[in-house]
Inverse folding.
């Protein structure tokens, strides 16, 4: 894509206060997920270390049925670990299994999918939310232009009058983090909501 890709900082105390105011395959290249929210020209927090040692659980053999709370718990595990973004590096593995370290691999893990999907193939295990402002926690926001194999996807954590908080793997050189996306940004960049078909 030739879109100017500026990104949000991970959520800070100041940001929280401001917001209150106002086909599948683990080996496939992912999304070109270097597309994230525009906010005052700020860059995403940079990754500063390699993936730390961790307990590796078994990736599910079939797509799981999960509650929204469980989906967010799984997503938060990568945010807490600050898993570095990489489409081609060693997949990250924790107690939830092994997944590719990009935006769609992250959502695949959170949704309990049997492998790392890519942005386009996530559409096959989800349904479009009729109105983007009706997304709920555990849903995802995606941007997948028909003219490009690249796109981006992030997991919805919560929403408010001005926008939503998401968990995301933003781009190369960054790591899994919580971000705030305004409704204005979401609309101007043609994001829409998708809901995992197996959400309870």
């Amino acid at each position: 894509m030739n879109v100017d890709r500026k990104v949000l900082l991970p959520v800070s105390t100041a940001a929280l206060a401001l917001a209150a105011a106002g086909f599948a395959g683990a080996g496939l290249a992912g999304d070109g997920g270097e597309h994230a929210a525009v906010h005052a020209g700020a860059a995403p927090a940079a990754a500063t270390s390699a993936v730390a040692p961790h307990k590796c659980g078994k990736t599910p053999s079939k797509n799981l049925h999960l509650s929204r709370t469980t989906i967010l718990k799984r997503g938060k595990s990568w945010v807490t670990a600050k898993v570095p973004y990489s489409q081609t590096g060693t997949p990250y593995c924790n107690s939830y299994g092994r997944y590719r370290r990009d935006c769609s691999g992250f959502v695949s893990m959170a949704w309990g999918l049997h492998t790392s999907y890519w942005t386009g193939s996530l559409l096959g295990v989800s349904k479009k939310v009729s109105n983007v402002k009706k997304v709920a926690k555990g849903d995802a926001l995606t941007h997948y232009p028909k003219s490009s194999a690249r796109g981006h996807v992030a997991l919805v954590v919560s929403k408010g009058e001005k926008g939503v908080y998401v968990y995301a793997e933003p781009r190369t050189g960054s790591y899994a983090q919580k971000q705030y996306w305004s409704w204005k940004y979401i609309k101007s960049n043609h994001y829409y909501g998708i809901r995992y078909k197996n959400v309870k």
